[in-house]
Write the structure tokens for this entry.
Amino acid sequence: MEWYLALLLLVGLSIALMLMGVPVAFAFFGANIVGATIFFGGEPGLIQWVRNTVEAVGKFPLAPVVCFLLMGEVLYHSGVAVRAIDAIDRLIARVPGRLCLVAVIGGTTFSALSGSTMANTAMLGSTLMPEMRRRGYHWSMTMGPILGTGGIAMLIPPSGLAILLGSLAEISIAGILIAGAVPGFLMACTHFSYVILRCRFDPSLAPAYDLPRMSFRERVRPFLIYVVPLFGLFLLVIGSILAGFATPTESASCGAIGAVIAAMAYRSFTWASFLTAVRETGRIAVMVLFIIAASLTFSQILAFSGATSGLLGLMRLVEPSPLVLIAGMMAITLILGCIMDPLSIMLITLPFFVPLAHFAGFDLIWFGVLMLLALEIGQTTPPFGLLLFVMKSVAPKDTTMQQIYLAVAPFILLEIALLIVLMLVPGAVTWLPALMRLG
């Protein structure tokens, strides 16, 4: 079979199954079974496919996924994260768009602890939006900063999706975790600046209001109690990787234990909340492992069928410049983000993008971070961005999808601008992992 026919068969079948409503992992398993039967030689091929599937999820580097998930779930369900948001709210005073800035700072803080974009958006929406509406904030400023900041969890470590991408693309997990920190904080700074400038030019979007009189001690004390120790947890996880004291698996284990200790120290730990966190962690982890198994075996079948080598041969004939090639990859990812979830996009694109990245000589950590940023933008891109529907679920009942689309549009443009800057200035992404290697 010609390589382009094999490519059409495998990719087309997986997309067709997803359009029929089959869960993502099982859609790829279906394509894998057909591919293994055709290209691996019938029954022996199916046996080999099963072996490859088991081997795909038996890798020790996947352990950080579960530990980071547990860390974020414990902090979320115990209420420790909500207390941190309240403490940040007390600290910020008399600035334009105060509650919007609380959303940006609080969302960035929780991103550094949870690694979950959906949990980040849901928590910010449920805790801050009612107060924003009560204070007369325009609907665009109640939802836009929350949606823009919610996705930062995909970049700032510990990002579960970064670990998943690193595993699928065989990129250094420690490297991609560390590299995402700088772009994540740059994104937070752009959102922060945008909120201040927009609210300064149009104060009616976020009306000022009188705050209860609090002494400096009353404002700072909750921040020192509920936020600073959590930054210590972040430093424990990321600092141990950066200093070379611990592997990602060891640091993730420390983070999960530290989250439980933090919940106990704040007297927020209950067995009910802990069991809920464990149950949610198990549910998400099983889904992630299924997807990893499906993706890696899909990549193997593509390579064995000749589809991957055929596509690489075509690229050698075209000979695009590195900038054109990476721009094309990001454009495809952004377009797919309008209609698909990040996991599906990775499953479809990485088997082709990673060989192309090797062919072009890209720094794989830089490529991985650009992919994460493009996937993050896709989560807030109409019409089917996942975070848009999370926002709809926590927003007041009279909120329309059109309002959500309009609210997030400026933040999407800011993030695309940041993506272009990182494409043109790779050093902004690679310098921190390079420092780690030097250490």
Observations:
- The chain has two domains: 1-57+291-304, 58-269+306-438.
- The chain has a mean pLDDT of 81.
- The CA atoms of residues 41 and 174 lie 38 Å apart.
